[in-house]
Amino acid sequence: MKKLIAVLLVVVMIAGILAGCGAKKSGGTLTMGTNAEFPPYEYYEGDKIVGIDAEIAAAIADKLGMELKIEDMAFDAIIPAITSGKIDMGMAGMTVTDERKQSVDFSDSYATGVQAVIVAENSAITSVDDLSAGGLTIGVQSSTTGDLYMTWDLEDPGLATVQRYNKGADAVQALVTGKVDCVVIDNEPAKAFVEANPGLKILPTAYTEEDYAIAFAKGNTELQTKVNEALKELIADGTVAKIIDKYIGG
Predict the structure, then answer these.
(1) DSSP category for residue 128
(2) Could you give the C-alpha distances from 35 to 22, 46, 72, 246, in angstroms and in order?
(3) pLDDT value at position 122?
(4) pLDDT tens per residue across span 230-239
(5) Is 247 helix (H, G, I), strand (E, B) or coil?
(6) How many other CB atoms sit within 10 Å of the CB of residue 30?
(7) Dihedral sign, CA of 45, 49, 53, 57?
(8) What is the pTM of this model?
(9) Vertex 216: Cα angle to 82 and 73 (nearest 5)
């Protein structure tokens, strides 16, 4: 009988060790929705999504003891995916706006974004004031803040036509081929697009500045609070700054 008990104890111990080895995280899965067409915040290296948002999200998940899963989707599908419960949070260089606050709640801000204007090097557009001169066609990525600002400030008052594209790269290609007069998009991807497309430049003055944050389903205060706590720690210990500097530079 003693031998049997001893054997059972050994089996239980081995099972516990194996279970511990197989379970990397105990807090479940944290699913993040993004649009991996937005370097340096999210983009592909091979078949892996990398970038500022991907690394900050991974650091948050690690703090929470969770496994991070990233879902790539169209930018304008992120908020519907959050509200429907398909994903836990959205992180895609997403700006906090009053319009978006009607659908989702936001974390504390973790980065500042700038809306830049891309033009051809020989363009007659020399300042952001020229955008409201009338008659221009402006390219944007659909549902981004560039789209929102151009719609509110210029299209709705009848000062310009806004041409919307699923990807920022498609808007830039339209500029290269002369289908639009300029592109309004976040500054960091704007730099990458200009570098990849000779003959383009960014206007020296930004259209506007804005705060980036993480979006959650309305009322999901438990996850929002946990992520905010993790984010505060990561900002305080310099992790967020290191990640941003890695991709953008100090």
Answers:
(1) G
(2) 31, 16, 5, 20
(3) 96
(4) 999 999 999 9
(5) helix
(6) 24
(7) negative
(8) 0.73
(9) 40
